[in-house]
Amino acid sequence: MSGRTARATRAAAKQRHDDINKALDRIYRQVPDVGCKGLCSAACTWIAMADVERDRIERRHGIRLEDRDVIEVAPGTFRCKALTQDQKCSVYADRPMICRLWGADESLPCPHGCTPSVAPMPSLEAMLLLREVLILDGDRPMVPVDMMRKVLSHPRGISLWKRMVAANGRGDQDASIEFINLVEELSDQDTQAGPRDAR
């Protein structure tokens, strides 16, 4: 590879990182700040995040947080590698979307009383922002937006959303499977109903 090609490749990679950072900043700004009191470190264990978030944390803080990459602090007790000795998040400014939603999503109230200064965001809005991050990561959304609305308005929908987010990468496969089953059930109902009468 010539010097000119290598420089062009590096410039393109830098531009891609810059574009992703701007997009993440735009998405993150839409989540209301909850005035975190820093009392939730017990919940900081296995943190699920998009690769673009993981890469950003590594570039800015020098910490690589892999899935299920935790420190065992006592037998059976794990903590996120980003927690400091005094149990504070060392990457708080760049924390992933899943961490930002605690207390900000109306269905995920903070157990320590941290609340946004504005009304908590509706769960659908939170889910759509999480979806935007995954799209940045190159994932193709499995569930269309209109179906997400139906799922979250279904009596089981919010409870499944809470279980999936609460699992936070710890593998509540049952909630994920139930969520997919609910999507399929609602899709089948739409199909059976057929096209709406256009009168």
Describe this structure in words.
- With 199 residues, the chain is mainly α.
- It has one domain (24-193).
- Helix content is 49%, strand content 5%.
- The chain contains seven helices and two strands.
- The chain has helices spanning 3-29, 51-61, 97-101, 123-136, 145-153, 157-167, 173-193, and strands spanning 70-74, 77-80.
- Strands 1-2 form a two-stranded antiparallel ribbon.
- α6 (157-167) runs antiparallel to α7.
- It is globular, with a radius of gyration of 19 Å.
- It starts with a helix and ends in a 6-residue tail after the last helix.
- The model has no long low-confidence stretch (mean pLDDT 82).
The domain tally reads 1
Q: Whole-Å distance between the termini?
A: 64 Å
Please report the number of helical segments.
Answer: 7
Q: Segments where pLDDT lies below 50 for 5+ residues?
A: none
Order of strands side by side in the largest beta sheet? 1-2
The average pLDDT is 82
- Main beta sheet: strand number and arrangement? 2 strands, antiparallel
Shape: globular
Sketch the topology as an H/E string, one letter per element: HHEEHHHHH
| Beta-strand residue fraction | under 5%
What is the helix fraction of residues, given as a range?
40-55%
Q: What is the SS-derived class?
A: mainly alpha
Rg over CA atoms, rounded to whole Å, is: 19 Å
Q: How many extended strands?
A: 2
